[in-house]
Structure formats: structure tokens, C-alpha cells
Model the fold of this input.
Amino acid sequence: MLNKKVLAVATGVLCSLSVSIGFAEAEFKMINLLRYYKTMYNATPYTQLMQIGIGGGLENVGGIEQDTKHLSRGLPMAFRPTKNPNEVWVLDSINESLKLFKSGRINRRINLSKMGFIQDFAINDEGNMAFLNRNNGNIYVTDNKGNISNTIPGFQDANSIEFASNKELLVVSPLSKGVVRVSTEGPVLAVYEADQSLSNYSSEKGIWGLECFGGTLAKLYVRNPDFSFDNPVKVIAEFPLKGAYQGVEYKGGNIYGFDEEGNIYFGLVACDLDGIIYRDRIYKCDQNGKVLKEMDVIDNGIISPDLPRHRVACPDGKIMTFFSDEIKYYSLHIYTLK
Amino acid sequence: MRKNNVLLSLLALSIALYMSPVSFAEQEAADPFGGVSITQEETSSDDGLETNNTEVNTEAATSEGGDSKVTTTSNVDPDAKKVEDWLKDGLTQNDEKKDEKKEEKKDDDKKDEKKEEKKDNDKKDEKKEEAKTVEYTVVSGDCLSAIAGSQMGDYSRWPEIVELNKDKYPSLVSNPNLIYPGWTLTLPAGSKPQSSGNSGNSGSSSGSYSGTISAKVGEAIDSSGWNSVNPCEPMPSRISSEFGWRIHPCTGERKFHNGVDLPIPSGTRLNAMANGTVTACGFESGGGNYVRIRYDNGYETFYCHLQSFNVKVGERVLCGQEVAKSDNTGQWTTGAHLHMEVKVNGERVNPRDVVTTIKNLK
Done:
């Protein structure tokens, strides 16, 4: 009798557990091979801006040279929208080119064959460019036609570059444990030791950072040595994960850049321990940290750890991202903040 | 009755304790673990014992001090003349010593002058040789101290190399341990010129990773520790998805798989494969939580779909150090696993070809 009672109780407990687990499983849905929590079901998806075919042709980007022993992934390493609508520079590294596309058609091409495999590029207001080859550690500074005017060595494994002004670059360099300010003439001007939360986007206020790894509080901050020698960081805005579910934390986030008016754009992602996405939110803030717009978005996952950035703020305030099936097409997408 | 017995026994015990503090201390010495707790109780509950003991000790100390005062006064009192003589002797001795010191000082001054002359000469020589700084091309296996030892004759002079080259290679300041084959370092004047035997990369383009990988891929443990540890612990017995073309298990599309999938449960420990630097970590939609490490031998690993990682970008990691725990975050797959990619010379390669412990998996 006792055994039967124990069995009955155990069965009951098991049943209730399985029901609760089943209920928990039903709380998320798979969208684009990513698991989103139910609060994200109505998040905004992207719209396609243009689609470019994969291949070595002039109108194409990328190309895949693969065998079972060796792979050279052909996807473009970076993209940057211009001030003109529907116009994008695409870094077609494997074809040693920087290509300017407008509405899917090529407008211009710059030959990068002298620089090797380029991982990132930046363009300043004068149209001059900088290219990062993280394999040999060189940054190539060029005019607007791609003619090399200076080569700056010493940036092996750097992740990304941005112009801080027309004559200065900010380089995210893990080996320097932070961000390096370097003149386009060559000399290093400063090394800002910091964790990875410090970006290389800068404005008159200083260099912007987003502290969002772990925990339920994200901080948008500016770093400027003028603030204080001991504490050059000033928190501009905080973003608590209100009503957070158990185990849900900020897992990532990035600054996407500025629009023409100087507003800053960034994103924060919150997940639980299983990686279910509870929040993927894009923010638009003014330089004082006031949130002007925010929106949850649906992404399209692609494993691309080598890319310097996955989303970029356009001058008109849209957020550009990309996706590729890695075989036929490479497409650029837009999120429009409402 | 029982209460009385207990009280009596307690009384007897406290008397015994009071009478034999030394034996208690001996017990403490014999049993340090028990002793600590007992002494704590003792000091808190029975301060009288402690204070009594210390009083006795202080009294003893003062009496000793008194004795010493007596002895000093007894030396002075008996004969004042002796004291005067002794003082005079002392003074004369002091004068002699002063004379000696003066002579020593003169000698020292002369030596100093000579040294200064030498220094001046050295400075002149240095100035002459400033224009003769030596260029050194880093080769595989080099480190700053070794270069300082072989070219400058002193291993400890490596900071001079950092100072001379920090503008050219800013990462040297924060991480002097990491230099790359192909770098051209400026060595201070007086350094030996680089011999032809150890100059430049052998047959590889300067400045690329290839200079660091002179040995055949995946054959032996190198100085960075590569191939001496497993990527995860415990290791699975098989690979669930190979490097190369495959039908994606979720989409059904034919795609190229850039790494290998190791079927391991959530929370499995993941290790750094060698000494290196974390070049990226974070979260991306596709890979979930990820860690990318660049090793000192030029190889690079990428782990993704992780539960968590416990390193930061720019952090130095050691061979075998736990860097993350596995899971199934990011792009959904059929189960928890480690997606592991390996890069050599900036290009992804089949991990089976470069990781000995993976080579033999089914």
C-alpha cells in the first residue's frame, strides 16, 4: 500500500513537472532559427534594401572558395551607408575591392589588391579612407580614389576602425586592451585602456561606450580625459532590465553610430541562460541620453564573429544590417525606428 | 540530582582549567584545529586568566628593564676619570675615524670624478652611436627578453626595446609578451646586428601569421602549448558534424560548415588551446555567446553557442585555462554542442588537421 502511495505521489510530481516544462517550452517561438520569448513575437522585422548576388563578377560580392581542407569565406566583411539614400559601400574583401552600390547596382569600385585581405574600412568627411588588414596589422590610409598615402603598422588582431576626425582614427585593439587613437600621419596619440564596452564611435563629448555584458543594468557612457584624470567616464543614461525574468540578463549590445543630427543609436540584447532572446531593442538617444525612440526587432542569425559590426546607423536614422544564405545572395536590410 | 551533578562537574572543570593554563596551551599546540576554537572561547569567557598572565609578563619585563638601568648607572658611577678617559679615547678614536673617512671621501670623490669622466665618455659614445640603432626583424619563437639577451647582451634590457618601438607597435606597451614575426624592431645603439641565420621569415610574406607556423600543422606541441590540452573536458568520443559541405540539420539547405561540432552537454568546461589573447567575446544572434582567441603560435580558435564565458577581450589566457562553458545558444540546433572553428594564417581550416585530440575522434 505504501509503495503504491509513493508511486502515485511520484507520478503526480513527474506529471506536474512535465506540464510545467511543456508550458515553459511553449513560451518561446523559433523565428529565423532564433528562439524568441513570447514578448518578442510582435517585434519589428527588417525590410530588404537591396540584394547582391554572390560571386566574383563586378556586380557581385563575395565568392566561396572551399574544399574540405580549407575555406576562404567569401562574405563581405563590412558595409557603410553613405549620405545618399539607398547607397552603400560594401567591402568585398575576397575580390580585393570596395564597391559602392546604389539600389543593388554598382556605381563605383576601388581596387584594394595592394593591401591584402581587408577586414574593415572607414571613410571621413573629406572622402579619404582607411583600411584595416588585421593579419599583417597594417592600416592603409588612402585618398578618396584608394591611392595609399600612408601605412600604419602594429594593429594585428584589431577589430575595427573609425575616423574620430578627418586626421585621427580610433582603433579597437584587443592587444592594446582598449581603443587606440592614432593619427593618419602615423604616430599613436593615445591608448585608452578599457574593457570591450568602449566603442570607437566618438563625438565632441568624447568616446562612447555601452556597458551591457551580464547583469540587468546597461549603461551608456562617454569617456573623455577632460572629465577627470582619475575617472574619465561619465554615465549618460542607464537602462535597467525592468521586470526581468529569472536568469535573464543583458548578453550583448553595440553602438551603431550617429545620424546626421548627432543622435546616437545602439542596441541591447537580453537572453536567459538557454539563449532564448527576451529583448533585442534598438535605441535612439540624443547626446544627453534622452531616449527619443526605441524598438524591439527580429534578427536573422548568421555566425559571423569576424565582422567588425553587424548593424550600422545610417545618416537618415535608419539602422542597416545584412544577411546572406552564404551561397547565392548577400542582402542589406533596414530597420526603421517608429 | 542530575542538575547538581552537572553543576559540580562544571565547577570541577573550571577549577582544573584555572589551575592548569599551561597544559591548556600545550593542548592547543598539539591540536591546532581544536586549540583555536578553545582559545577563542577561553579569551572571551575567561579574560581574567589572560590579563593575569600578561600582568605577570609585563612585571617581569619592567624588572628586566630596571636591571639594565642599574647596570648602566653602575658603569658610570664608580670612577669618573675612567669615564673621562674612555670619552677622550672615544673622541680620539672618532677623530681618527673622521680622518679615515675624509681620506675615503677623497678617494670616493676621485673615483666619482673618474666615473663621471667615464660616463661623459660613454654619453659621447652613445651620442655617436645613436645614429647606429640596429633594426631587428622578429622571427618565429622570438620574445623581447630573448632578443635583448642575444642582441643587447642583457635579458633584462627588454623594456628599452618597448620604449624605442612603442610608437610603431603600440600594443607592446600593454602586452610586451606578444610580438609577431615580421615586425621590424629598433634596437638601441650598440646592439649586435641581426645575423643572416635568424633574420626575417623563411619564405613567407613579412608581417603575416605564416611566419609563426613553420612546423607542419598540428604535429607537435609548440612553445605556446598548442595540442597539449583538449578543447573541452570531458571530450566526446565523436564529432557530430564535420568541417565541409553538409545539409544543414535545421534548414535542410546545403551549406559549408566552417568548423566541427562536438556533442557535449550544457555546462561542459571549454579550455584555451594554448597561451594566447582573447580577441573577441560577446553575443551575436547567430553564434550566441562566443569567444575568439588568438594564440601565440598564430592559430586562432572560435567557440560559439556557449552558455557563458569568463574572459574579456584583451585578456591573456594560458594553455588549458577554462574560458567558457558550452550550451546551445544562438542559432537553434538539434542539441547542445560546441561549434569550434580553427584559423591558420587567417583562414579557417579543418580542426581535425590541426588539433591532435580531435583528429582521432570518430
About this structure: Chain A has two domains: 1-31, 32-335. Residues 144 and 227 of chain A are 35 Å apart (CA to CA). Helices of chain A lie at 2-25. The mean pLDDT of chain A is 88.
